Backbone:
C-alpha cells in the first residue's frame, strides 16, 4: 500500500509525534504569513511596542486588521476543506473523492452565484453577514444529497458512478453559473469571478466570525464520527452488522461536510484540491485512523492554505494571485500522480 | 437463537432462497454446505439481518430480526463476511479495534481485549502490520480477531451470543484452518451459537456438530453431521460421485471423491 518513494521520504516524520509536527507547521506558516507581504513589517518593533508614531499605527493596523484576520480565515478555510475531504473520502471509501468532485463545492458555488445576483444588497443585518454562508451551505447540501440519491437509487452505491454523477452535477452547476453571469451587472460579475477563482482577499474580522460560528460546531460534530468512519472502511453492510446506522452516518457526515465546505466557499470562493491532497499526505505519514486523521487534516490543511495564500500575495506583489489558482497548480499534478498510482495498484 | 420461518429471498426475479424452515441449534457449531450459488451466503446474511427476506421471517431470540435495534443485535451477534478489503491503510490493531466500536472502553481495556482477541485468533504477531500488506489467510485471522473482540464480553462470561461466519478459512493453510475451527468448537462448547459457511467438507465433517446442506436455494438436508454426511445425499447435492469413509483416528467421517468418468 505504501507507495515506495513516498513512504521512504516521510519515514523520519513518522517517528515524531503527529500533533506536534502539525501544530509546528501551522505556527510556522502563520508567522511567515503575518510578516510577509506587499508592506514589510518590522516585527521586533511591533512585538515590543517601541516604535515611532504614525507609521507604527499603520503597521499595527495592517497586522491586526489585514494580515491576522486573513491568516485566521485561511486556517479555518483550509482546515475545514481538508477535514471535510478526509471525512468524505472515508465515507465513500474512495481516495479520489473530494468535496469538489461529489458536487458539494459546485452546489455551494451555484448558490453563492444566485445569492450575489439576486439577493446581495437586498438583505441587511445578520442576514447580510450569514446569508451567503447559509446559501452556500444549503447549495452544498442539496447538491450532495441529489448526487447521493441518484447513486443509491440507480447504481447501488457504485463509487465510480458516484464520481461520474458528481462530474455531471459539476457541469450543470457550472453552466448555471455561466447563465448567471449573463444576467448579472458589472459589479456582480466581478464578485462572481472572485468566488469562482477562490481568494482570501476580502478577509476581515466579520467574515472570520461568520465562518467560525458555522465551522467550529461542524468540526466538533464531525469529529464524533471518527470511529464510525473507521468502521465504514469495512463497507456498509459490516457497519450495520457492527451496530451502526449507515444511512444516518452518511446523512450526518454529508451535512457536516456541506456546512464546512459551504462556509469555506462563502468566505473564500472555490479553493480546489486542499480537501484532496491534505488527507492523503496525513495518511501517508500517520496512517488512516480517522480519529487522528481528521484533526491532523485540519491542522495541515490550515497550514497549506496559509502557505499558498502567502505565495499568492507575495509572488507578484503588489498584485495578488487568486489563491485557488495556486492550490490548483499544486493540486492538479498531485491528483494526476494519485490517479496513476491507483491505476498501477489496481492492475497488479 | 435464530429461527427461520419459510424464508425466501429473491433478487431481480431470481429466487436465491426458497422456503427455508430451520432453527439454528444452540451452543453448537453448525456448518452450511452446498455447491456454488446454492444460497449459502444469502442464508447467512438473512440470518445476520443484512438481507431482509422477501417472504417469511427470521427471529432472533424470539423477536423479529427486522424489528431489532442494530446496536442491541451487535452486542449479541457478530458477522464475519467474505473478502473484506480496506481502501485505506489501517493497522491490524486498528482493524481489530473496529470490533469495539460500540463499546465505551478505556484505552487500557481496549488494548487488553484487542491483544486477547488477536491471541485467540493466532494473529498476535501481526498486530503492528498494515492490514493491506497481509496475505489472504492472515487477513482472515485478523477479521476473526475483530469479531471475537465484538463478542468479547459474552465470550468471557460464557453468556449466549451468536457468531456467523462466511467461509472464514478459505484462504488459510491447513494448520490455521484447523486452529480456527478448533476455536469455533471451543466457543460453541462455552455457550456461543456458531454458524459457519464451509466449502471444505472434511473440515465440516471433523468439526461441525450439525450440517445444513443447501442446493438451488433450498435446504436440502439438515441434522447432526454424521446423518447428513451420507454418500447418496452428498453425491446428490454436489452432482458428483462422493463416498464417505471413517476417519482412521477420530469418530468422524472423511469425504472422498472419485473420478466421474472412470
Residues:
Amino acid at each position: 500500500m505504501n507507495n515506495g518513494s513516498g513512504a521512504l521520504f516521510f519515514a523520519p516524520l513518522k517517528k515524531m509525534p503527529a500533533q506536534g509536527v502539525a501544530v509546528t507547521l501551522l505556527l510556522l506558516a502563520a508567522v511567515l504569513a503575518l510578516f510577509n507581504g506587499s508592506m514589510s513589517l518590522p516585527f521586533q518593533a511591533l512585538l515590543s511596542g517601541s516604535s515611532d508614531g504614525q507609521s507604527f499605527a499603520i503597521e499595527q493596523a495592517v497586522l491586526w486588521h489585514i494580515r491576522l484576520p486573513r491568516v485566521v480565515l485561511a486556517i479555518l478555510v483550509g482546515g475545514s476543506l481538508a477535514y471535510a475531504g478526509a471525512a468524505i473520502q472515508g465515507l465513500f471509501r474512495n481516495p479520489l473523492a473530494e468535496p469538489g468532485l461529489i458536487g458539494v463545492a459546485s452546489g455551494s458555488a451555484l448558490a453563492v452565484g444566485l445569492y450575489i445576483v439576486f439577493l446581495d444588497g437586498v438583505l441587511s443585518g445578520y442576514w447580510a453577514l450569514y446569508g451567503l454562508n447559509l446559501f452556500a451551505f444549503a447549495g452544498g447540501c442539496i447538491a450532495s444529497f441529489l448526487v447521493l440519491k441518484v447513486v443509491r437509487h440507480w447504481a447501488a452505491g457504485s463509487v465510480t458512478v458516484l464520481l461520474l454523477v458528481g462530474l455531471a452535477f459539476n457541469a450543470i452547476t457550472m453552466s448555471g453559473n455561466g447563465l448567471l453571469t449573463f444576467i448579472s451587472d458589472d459589479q456582480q460579475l466581478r464578485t462572481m469571478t472572485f468566488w469562482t477563482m477562490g481568494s482570501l482577499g476580502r478577509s476581515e474580522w466579520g467574515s472570520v466570525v461568520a465562518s467560525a460560528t458555522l465551522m467550529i460546531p461542524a468540526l466538533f460534530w464531525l469529529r464524533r464520527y471518527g470511529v464510525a468512519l473507521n468502521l465504514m472502511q469495512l463497507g456498509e453492510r459490516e457497519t450495520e452488522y457492527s451496530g451502526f446506522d449507515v444511512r444516518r452516518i452518511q446523512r450526518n457526515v454529508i451535512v457536516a461536510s456541506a456546512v464546512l465546505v459551504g462556509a469555506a466557499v462563502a468566505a473564500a470562493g472555490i479553493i480546489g484540491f486542499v480537501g484532496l491532497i491534505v488527507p492523503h499526505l496525513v495518511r501517508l505519514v500517520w496512517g488512516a485512523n480517522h480519529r487522528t486523521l481528521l484533526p491532523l487534516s485540519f491542522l495541515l490543511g490550515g497550514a497549506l492554505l496559509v502557505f499558498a495564500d502567502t505565495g499568492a500575495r507575495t509572488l507578484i506583489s503588489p498584485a495578488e494571485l487568486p489563491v485557488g489558482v495556486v492550490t490548483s497548480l499544486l493540486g492538479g499534478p498531485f491528483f494526476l500522480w494519485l490517479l496513476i498510482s491507483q491505476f498501477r495498484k489496481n492492475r497488479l | 437463537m435464530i429461527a427461520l420461518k419459510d424464508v425466501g429471498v429473491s433478487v431481480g426475479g431470481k429466487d436465491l432462497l426458497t422456503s427455508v424452515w430451520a432453527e439454528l441449534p444452540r451452543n453448537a457449531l453448525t456448518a452450511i454446505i452446498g455447491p456454488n450459488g446454492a444460497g449459502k451466503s444469502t442464508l447467512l446474511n438473512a440470518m445476520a439481518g443484512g438481507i431482509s427476506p422477501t417472504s417469511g421471517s427470521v427471529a432472533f431470540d424470539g423477536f423479529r430480526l427486522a424489528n431489532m435495534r442494530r446496536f442491541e443485535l451487535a452486542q449479541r451477534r457478530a458477522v464475519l463476511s467474505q473478502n473484506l478489503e480496506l481502501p485505506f491503510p489501517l493497522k491490524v490493531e486498528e482493524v481489530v479495534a473496529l470490533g469495539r466500536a460500540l463499546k465505551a472502553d478505556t484505552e487500557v481495556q481496549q488494548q487488553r481485549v484487542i491483544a486477547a482477541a488477536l491471541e485467540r485468533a493466532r494473529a498476535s504477531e501481526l498486530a503492528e502490520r498494515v492490514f493491506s500488506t497481509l496475505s489472504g489467510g492472515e487477513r482472515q485471522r485478523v477479521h476473526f480477531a475483530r469479531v471475537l473482540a465484538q463478542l468479547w464480553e459474552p465470550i468471557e462470561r460464557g453468556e449466549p451470543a451468536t457468531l456467523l461466519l462466511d467461509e472464514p478459512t478459505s484462504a488459510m493453510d491447513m494448520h490455521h484452518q484447523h486452529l480456527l475451527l478448533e476455536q469455533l468448537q471451543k466457543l460453541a462448547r462455552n455457550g456461543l451459537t456458531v454458524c459457519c459457511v464451509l466449502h471444505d467438507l472434511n473440515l465440516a465433517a471433523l468439526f461441525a456438530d450439525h450440517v445444513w446442506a443447501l442446493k438451488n436455494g433450498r435446504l436440502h438436508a439438515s441434522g447432526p453431521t454424521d446423518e447428513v454426511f451420507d454418500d447418496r445425499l452428498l453425491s446428490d447435492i454436489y452432482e458428483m460421485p462422493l463416498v464417505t469413509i471413517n476417519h482412521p483416528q477420530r469418530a468422524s467421517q472423511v469425504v472422498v471423491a472419485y473420478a466421474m468418468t472412470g
Summary: Chain B has a mean pLDDT of 93. Residues 27-43+69-233 of chain B form a domain with the Rossmann fold fold (CATH 3.40.50.300). The longest strand of chain B covers residues 2-11.
